[in-house]
Amino acid sequence: MEPLIHLILPLTALTLLGVDFRKALPLALFGLLPDLDALLLIHRSLSHSLPVLLAFAAGAALLAYAVKPGLRNYIVLATLATASHPILDLFTGYTPILWPLSSHSLWVKTELGVHIGGSLTLLPSVKLLAQPTTFHRLESLDAPLFTGEGLITSLILTAPLILKAVRGHYQPHTDTSQESPNEPRSQTLKIESQE
Asked: How far is residue 195 from each of residues 15, 82, 169, 170, measured CA to CA in Å?
């Protein structure tokens, strides 16, 4: 799956959970971490394993708790953002999501097709595919940072989030100085920074 989607889906989920956009954005960047293995030309390696990611998260949580207990919630949210990556990849190709607990990489292939002819027929398909996990260095790796579908999906998901974040910086101001109590109030936008 393309990196843009690995960023935008956790960002959207965190924001819907009530995390402020300015805090959700850096947390969502953790959704990109598993693909750093591509820099070593080994893609979908142990960085795509939930047991490995959870072990690192547990270590980070213990360290954070010892240093600054208030970071615990951020560690949990960053872990969820990071874990979303291999879960999403599980639906796009073979992923060693359970390594080393399982020696197989898994791929959940899902599809809901439709046949339109004499009648309307839905054609659901769910397959769990497995193959032995192998980690090997590639000679090169070509992959899109985003596709047209990923870009438009991301824009549609983030536009409301960005508008909400921007709107949060401005407070509507109601001008009631020249209105009678029976008339509707007019709204003017009074720009105030909330820093």
From this structure: 19, 29, 8, 11
Rounded distance between C-alpha atoms, residue 57 and residue 147, angstroms: 30
CA atoms of 68 and 27, how far apart (whole Å) = 17
pLDDT, position 63? 87
State residue 39's pLDDT score: 85
Euclidean distance between CA atoms 146 and 152, whole angstroms: 10
Inter-helix orientation angle 50-67/72-89, to 10°:
170
Report d(CA 49, CA 79) in Å as an integer. Answer: 13
Query: Could you tell me if 35 and 13 are in contact, meaning their C-beta atoms sit under 8 angstroms apart?
Result: no
For residue 35, give the nearest of 73, 92, 75, 76 by alpha carbon: 92
What's the alpha-carbon Rg for the chain, to the nearest Å? 23
CB burial of 77-95 (b: ≥16 within 10 Å; e: otherwise) equals: bbbbbbbbbbebbbeeebb
User: Where does 17-147 have alpha helices with state H?
Assistant: 21-28, 50-67, 72-89
pLDDT for position 65: 83
Per run of 10 residues, the mean pLDDT along the chain (length 195 residues) is: 94 93 94 91 90 93 84 90 96 96 96 93 96 90 88 92 77 53 47 38
Question: What confidence score (pLDDT) does residue 188 get?
Answer: 38
